[in-house]
Amino acid sequence: xxxxxxxxxxxxxxxxxxxxxxxxxxxxxxxxxxxxxxxxxxxxxxxxxxxxxxxxxxxxxxxxxxxxxxxxxxxxxxxxxxxxxxxxxxxxxxxxxxxxxxxxxxxxxxxxxxxxxxxxxxxxxxxxxxxxxxxxxxxxxxxxxxxxxxxxxxxxxxxxxxxxxxxxxxxxxxxxxxxxxxxxxxxxxxxxxxxxxxxxxxxxxxxxxxxxxxxxxxxxxxxxxxxxxxxxxxxxxxxxxxxxxxxxxxxxxxxxxxxxxxxxxxxxxxxxxxxxxxxxxxxxxxxxxxxxxxxxxxxxxxxxxxxx
Amino acid sequence: xxxxxxxxxxxxxxxxxxxxxxxxxxxxxxxxxxxxxxxxxxxxxxxxxxxxxxxxxxxxxxxxxxxxxxxxxxxxxxxxxxxxxxxxxxxxxxxxxxxxxxxxxxxxxxxxxxxxxxxxxxxxxxxxxxxxxxxxxxxxxxxxxxxxxxxxxxxxxxxxxxxxxxxxxxxxxxxxxxxxxxxxxxxxxxxxxxxxxxxxxxxxxxxxxxxxxxxxxxxxxxxxxxxxxxxxxxxxxxxxxxxxxxxxxxxxxxxxxxxxxxxxxxxxxxxxxxxxxxxxxxxxxxx
Amino acid sequence: xxxxxxxxxxxxxxxxxxxxxxxxxxxxxxxxxxxxxxxxxxxxxxxxxxxxxxxxxxxxxxxxxxxxxxxxxxxxxxxxxxxxxxxxxxxxxxxxxxxxxxxxxxxxxxxxxxxxxxxxxxxxxxxxxxxxxxxxxxxxxxxxxxxxxxxxxxxxxxxxxxxxxxxxxxxxxxxxxxxxxxxxxxxxxxxxxxxxxxxxxxxxxxxxxxxxxxxxxxxxxxxxxxxxxxxxxxxxxxxxxxxxxxxxxxxxxxxxxxxxxxxxxxxxx
Amino acid sequence: xxxxxxxxxxxxxxxxxxxxxxxxxxxxxxxxxxxxxxxxxxxxxxxxxxxxxxxxxxxxxxxxxxxxxxxxxxxxxxxxxxxxxxxxxxxxxxxxxxxxxxxxxxxxxxxxxxxxxxxxxxxxxxxxxxxxxxxxxxxxxxxxxxxxxxxxxxxxxxxxxxxxxxxxxxxxxxxxxxxxxxxxxxxxxxxxxxxxxxxxxxxxxxxxxxxxxxxxxxxxxxxxxxxxxxxxxxxxxxxxxxxxxxxxxxxxxxxxxxxxxxxxxxxxxxxxxxxxxxxxxxxxxxxxxxxxxxxxxx
Lengths: 308, 287, 269, 298
Description:
The complex is a heterotetramer.
Chain A: H1 3-11, H2 15-54, H3 60-65, E1 69-74, E2 80-82, H4 85-116, H5 118-134, H6 137-156, H7 163-187, H8 191-199, H9 204-215, H10 217-233, H11 236-242, H12 259-267, H13 275-307
Helix pairs in contact in A: 2-13, 4-5, 4-7, 4-10, 5-7, 6-7, 6-11, 7-10, 7-11, 8-9, 10-13, 11-12, 12-13
Chain B: H1 2-20, E1 28-34, H2 39-52, E2 56-63, H3 65-73, E3 79-82, E4 97-111, E5 119-120, H4 122-130, E6 147-151, H5 156-166, E7 175-177, H6 180-189, E8 193-198, E9 207-208, E10 210-211, H7 218-222, E11 229-237, H8 242-252, H9 254-262, E12 267-268, E13 274-276, E14 282-284
Parallel strand pairs in B: 1-2, 1-3, 5-10, 6-7, 6-8
Antiparallel strand pairs in B: 3-11, 4-8, 4-9, 4-11, 4-12, 13-14
Chain D: H1 3-36, H2 42-46, H3 59-90, H4 95-108, H5 112-126, H6 133-158, H7 161-169, H8 174-203, H9 206-209, H10 242-251, H11 258-292
Helix pairs in contact in D: 1-11, 3-6, 3-8, 4-6, 5-6, 6-8, 7-8, 8-11, 10-11
């Protein structure tokens, strides 16, 4: 190519640059659509959920700390009885307990998959974990009802319905998510960390415990918190085993309720726009805000992790 | 890759546009939504209707009486199914709604089969559900804690039960389930459990209890000897027309009332010997 | 590291009418955010010669090289001022098509980075994307470039094998073949031999000597001997400045300034 | 105890944990299959469901599930791919991007009943799609998008930067580089994400109850004109999926064989997810091979 041709080609807009604009537009449209969906859901839930406080004039503090949920009747002062505390406590209890039980298992399985036997891990455990995700929550619920609940009843007494059963079911449900994210976290620890440690004469376990796990602490916490926000939003399966009694849970084996279970149960039975319905949407709003809080927690942990 | 991507996107939008053009769709359909108790009945009738009238569809959805009433009020569906009178539901303005009573359903207390108690008075029942009686031995049964299982607030079955049993007394906070199937499963498997359900759902896994020495049978409901029953309503917004009217006539026809409504365990309207108003006034129907 | 006076410098001006100049930079500054990495470098590169950029780590030689085909565009917060003149045009100009420019100013990186595709696809992929569809032309390009890169004999039976299966040295030569398949004017190489064993390094060097007939080559290297062996000109970078630029022979035997002398004799770096 | 002994103990514990997890899955699978498979027959898989008599099948529900899955994937895969690419390649690194990322993540842990009601009010009522496959597919898309987008972004991020530079240095646009170099290389991760998404979609009930609906009008399998109301392909018809069917017969169903039908449906559902898993993995590997030229030596 001679000089002029090259100059001309440099000054012309090439196919690649048109293509680049095309790509930017296409992917931009996609992200805009998703943002649109996100914004409209937030708007939708917020507008309905806030109506309880603005239209129906329910006191926010009463809503968060009240212990009686009976939106169709009024209390002694004539205010509607929409106390969400029993559900809030129930939701947090099952979420935290499930996370506490699931974490050691998830870390164990992840360490096995990345450090002990990557081959068995990839061949056996990974498909197993992916399959666990694929089992629908309805099915989890029914297995919980026919296996976990009687088991809890026989072993711990009570009716079998309660936070403990919910914890067991959620444990199995969040295990795959937490495990696979932990695997990612462990995999991102550079190989030479391990080699250096092993070269210094450390055993495999010492290497795992002192080097690999230490280096991936923030990643693991992120995984657990992510699993928790999953557990927080799970509805059908928990609803089947927790008993759905809107009482402050006194122990782990008496019936309790979660935000999602009350929400799912009540939606079809209340009339759109009425207080009972709006109060349910306020619960949905709480459900939306909580993962947001969890998320901020993740970011915060991530930042602290990055500083080390 | 890129071409495939564009093709996919194109296909998607095409699909959306195409399906937006409902006008071009051949065939006709109406949607009935609401009460999950009424759903199997309307569904069965709808299936039969489509067999007799090809190309005319009845979409039947559950979602609960609340959904049914609010959707029919907003006129976003053709028929709203409800276990309750529209007047009973807060937030519903019943003046445009036309009530079609298509069946009657009785509600009976059920207990775990291990419980030997055969009869309860209305007062005893009320005390159980309000939490005043907590052990079966107070009622002549074994020394066993009573496990109360309630239906979700706002459910039609619960409203019926509370209206005719609790009579204004408030129920205690207890386990709640949002579906009869769940209630049945839990009552069947939980020692000392008691709950209530509509007649069609009763099977051999749970035991019914007589109330005030009346057995829960269709016959007793028909003469209002068994008091705990309610109408099943299908509401239309204004007088039904076209396909809706055709279907309403169809579902109230003798064939459907006998072969489907009766067969499924509901009580056909025409078999009722009495009628009961919203306020609870009972009158004998003269043939 | 010793601080040398950056006003003490000798930059040979090649643009004296006797030579054909492929590319010049004129007072080029590169900054990442608030940190300026290059403080105004002005150099010219002769056509069909190999120019080596040497200097300690952090001297800015790689940054400088990467700005010559605007690879720094993709790093957020990069700001480039000054001129890079190619064929009488400033390649940073608004009217310049950056993709077209990169076809003429190709680049090979420190880490071999073949695509996760077959050997054949690696070389023909960009050609196809730029509109070349004729199979015979593509086949010819594969054979020619692989021969030029000294890889043909080893891979000619495995052209449809994954490039990732090649050894490091072979991968790097594949990357060179891939770059010259575009028939660029100028070839930029960023320490192409730093991760290779001596044998592979020698092969790559042979390849470059061979390529110099058709291409203007600018190479960043850590390896003094390598610069001495293959380059015609050498520029010495120190803390974001080019301190000395001359014929390689002169730089290595009679450097004009102290910093260059210290560096090439191994006193620092 | 010595370090070496600890090592042994820890390894044993890790093995036990892994075996436990496999045991849990094996138990779940066996439980579902043993209680369900005896009731599965050809008639059951292809037959019409019944609303109150025993002996109904799940043919229409199975078809609906698959059709919905396909539609939802057709909508959500390109969208999430585009969005993932944008977030990974184009999005400036600032607080807006991180806010978007956060919001998408929050969406992924939203209870599906909320998604269902959102879909009901927006797609079924506002857009007037009614109870239809289309509404259902859109709701599933909302449900599936966040997870898929995140997975796509993560998979793209996992591809080393030098791959992109290689593309740029050849005068390729960023878009071309991403589509032809980065995406193929990231395919295994993206496929995994899609498998998980498909599994979730296939088993999802709560989001569909209010959108795709719970009725399964008799289909005319001889008429494939998507505009005909009884056509299986008609996206405007109401469609009950397998998961919804399980939920329905268990909650309000009055068919006498509800337990068997739901057990058998669960078995079919899980088997199908299993099959999907295998198929997607196979297709993914093939596709990866074709796009990257990594072929098995013959």
